[in-house]
From TrEMBL:
GO terms for molecular function: sterol binding. It comes from the Eukaryota. One of its GO terms (cellular component) is cytosol. This is Oxysterol-binding protein-related protein 1C-like. It comes from Ziziphus jujuba var. spinosa.
Length: 114
């Protein structure tokens, strides 16, 4: 009824580093809600696959927010080597911070600076 809009991105993004490592990914679906009444908010949902041309790939799942969701903006996924072996788990919130735990059970997080 015109209360929200959904953006399905169809572009493939690419970044190339000086060492010729290339990563490609597509964006997940973005929803912009409460366009007419209420507090305007947006959300991302779907699966993002990040493919490297050398050693690594990543699959991230952006959880769709529900009305009663106590933990919005959740993201979780994994990093795999070229043989498909999982080498790290990623988790966090897309608007706040992401963390990883590698196969040796050590981890680190990086929060966004305010």
């Amino acid at each position: 009824m015109g209360h929200s809009i959904q953006l399905d991105h169809v572009v493939l993004l690419t970044v190339e580093f000086d060492d010729r490592e290339i990563f490609q990914w597509s964006k997940v679906t973005t929803s912009i809600n409460n366009l007419i009444l209420g507090k305007l908010y947006y959300d991302h949902c779907g699966t993002m696959r990040i493919q490297g041309n050398h050693n690594y790939s990543c699959k991230l799942k952006f959880k769709e927010q529900s009305i009663i969701d106590q933990y919005p903006h959740q993201v979780h996924g994994s990093v795999q080597d070229r043989n498909g072996k999982m080498i790290a788990i990623l988790f966090g919130k897309w608007d706040e911070s992401m963390h990883y735990v590698d196969r040796n059970c050590s981890g680190k997080g990086k929060g966004l600076e305010s």
